[in-house]
Specification:
alpha+beta; Beta-Lactamase; Jelly Rolls; 2 domains; six-stranded antiparallel β-sheet; four-stranded antiparallel β-sheet; 5 helices
Amino acid sequence: MPELPVKKELTLQVANQLADAAQAEAEKRNAAVVITVVDDGGYPIVLRRLDNTQVASVQVGIDKARTAAIYRRPSKDFEDQVKNGRVSALALAGGVPLQGGLPIKVDGVVVGAIAASGNTPQEDEDIAAAGLAALDAQQEARYFPAALVDVAFSKGTPILETNSYKVHASRRDTPGLAEVHLYETDVIHVLKGSSTLVVGGSLIDPRETAFGEVRGKGIVGGTSYALKAGDVMVVPPHTPHWFKDVTAPFLYYTVKPISK
């Protein structure tokens, strides 16, 4: 019989801890907001309306959190789409294109979302982010045995993903598409093989492939770096980069701090 996967759930205790951290940030800013924590289906677990917060922010806060939970991305992504001309984002099923909702991830899996509503869009998101930071602060030391790491490198898969950073066992056997990460820094440490990495310049035929991810056929301009075992490369957000040539197997750790 096939085995069913084990699903992690967001408990009331953890949801309250996230709300506590977000409330502390809001009070530090003297911000009158509604703080909402929902499960992975977008249903509220905790809702706090701070003193003097407008009534309208209650439903807006729920909507923002639900959007981040069911679409597995910050609600700001859809607000940006509308700003950039994709008005169809206004018709999201069960979602709103309003900044302030952030997904809650455990080992790369979305287990819920947290949102704030009542102040400026950026301040709402900052308050929600303070709640996420409380969850990451509770993360314990993690050990990954060599056998598990070897399997990850054989496939080129993530080892660990949290709300604030990712660790990938990256593998390339052929050149890939040029890419830009809008919210992630790539810290690359080469273990094996070699590659010509082009950094900077402009993407050719750019297109959004996922939240915060843009891909292109190549890069015009930029600076070429000959990467080999032992080298380290740091690529900031919004910076085009392209593994143009690869000597397989090209294996490298990628640590990705995430900026909100």
